[in-house]
């Protein structure tokens, strides 16, 4: 995090006291050198899981950030790939990246809760963005995704198994979320970023209510927990007609 290429402690503090949009605008030039950027290992695992389901004509990377996930879509979409994000700074970095080979790539600035598209996509993916949405926002968010998918289109995103209660990871996430709640109670504008609000059971119910049929696909690259359950899964939700 505090490598010469990454943000300084002061820069992170300024970001944390900003709005989500302004914070990511500030972080954008160094975002790819932080742990917030989705690791290539996750991106590659998702691409491998999606390849047997494709190819897809057109894909959308929801909350694309600096564009790391666009490479996944380029591997499984044959006609076009679009990245959408509400941070102008993140999109500026994305536009400077060398586009992956394959389909045409475009970038659009928009809020995921009010997407400026009709049913133009066959696949929507998202990586690491759901902590920026409160649980009460999920119905509207999933409704927006459904509205931009063609019938039988797919909405896919990876989820990690939650850490065991009492484990170091559990206390780390609990502490982070508690600190964010205190920050948002004392400071405006709020910075919505929580790690423990996106629960798989709730997500499945909201996807069903939004008009999706959701399936879980294990990502074997990440192994299994002691109880035999996968450490990571890919949620693949198909839009019902």
TrEMBL record:
Keyword vocabulary terms for this entry: Methyltransferase, Transferase
GO annotation terms (biological process): methylation
Domain of life of the organism encoding this protein: Bacteria
EC number(s) reported in the record: 2.1.-.-
Listed Pfam families: Methyltransf_25
Limits of the Methyltransferase domain: 60-153
Entries under InterPro entries matching the protein: Methyltransf_25, SAM-dependent_MTases_sf
Gene Ontology MF, one: methyltransferase activity
Identification of the protein by name: Class I SAM-dependent methyltransferase
């Amino acid at each position: 995090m505090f490598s010469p290429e990454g943000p300084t402690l002061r820069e992170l503090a300024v970001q944390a006291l900003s709005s989500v949009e302004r914070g990511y605008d500030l972080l954008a030039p160094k975002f790819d050198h932080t742990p917030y950027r989705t690791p290539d290992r996750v991106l590659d695992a998702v691409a491998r899981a999606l390849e047997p389901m494709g190819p897809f004509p057109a894909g959308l990377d929801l909350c694309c950030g600096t564009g790391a996930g666009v490479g996944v879509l380029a591997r499984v979409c044959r006609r076009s790939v679009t990245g959408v994000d509400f941070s102008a700074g993140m999109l500026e970095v994305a536009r400077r990246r060398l586009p992956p080979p394959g389909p045409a790539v475009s970038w659009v600035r928009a809020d995921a809760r009010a997407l400026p598209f009709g049913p133009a996509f066959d696949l929507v993916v998202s990586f690491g963005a759901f902590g920026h949405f409160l649980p009460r926002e999920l119905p509207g968010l999933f409704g927006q995704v459904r509205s931009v998918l063609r019938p039988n289109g797919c909405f896919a995103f990876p989820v990690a198994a939650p850490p065991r209660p009492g484990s170091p990871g559990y206390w780390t996430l609990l502490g982070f979320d508690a600190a964010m709640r205190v920050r948002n109670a004392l400071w405006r504008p709020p910075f919505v970023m929580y790690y423990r609000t996106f629960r798989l059971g709730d997500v499945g119910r909201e996807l069903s209510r939004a008009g999706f049929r959701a399936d879980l696909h294990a990502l074997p690259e990440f192994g299994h927990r002691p109880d035999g359950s996968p450490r990571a899964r890919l949620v693949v939700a198909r839009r019902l007609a």
